[in-house]
Amino acid sequence: MARDTEPSSPACRLLVCVGPRCDAEGRGRALAAALREKLAADPGAARKISLQTRDCLRNCTREPIVRIEPSGDVFSNPTAKDLLRLARAVLDGETV
Fold this sequence. Notes:
- The chain has a single domain (about 10-90), classed as Glutaredoxin, CATH 3.40.30.
- Helix content is about 35%, strand content about 20%.
- The chain has helices spanning about 25-40, 45-50, 80-90; strands spanning about 10-15, 50-55, 65-70, 75.
- It has a 4-stranded mixed beta sheet.
- β3 and β4 form a beta hairpin.
- It is globular, with a radius of gyration of 14 Å.
């Protein structure tokens, strides 16, 4: 008998701040859009890495801030390419 299974939840989450300070010039939203594009181009990564935005991560700067979970590491002004590399490291159990 076949069992219905739910899709597994992503093992890593990227939280991009789009609050008024971090996204003052639209750079947080631009980073989130770049990440969405890269994840869409890599379905394998998209199954393991989720992307979400937050109004504030309480690490205010004038640059985009991203927190990687479950590690909790916070990065200021990262590139989309660097974030995906860091997320893959977290998935592989490496320290970032």
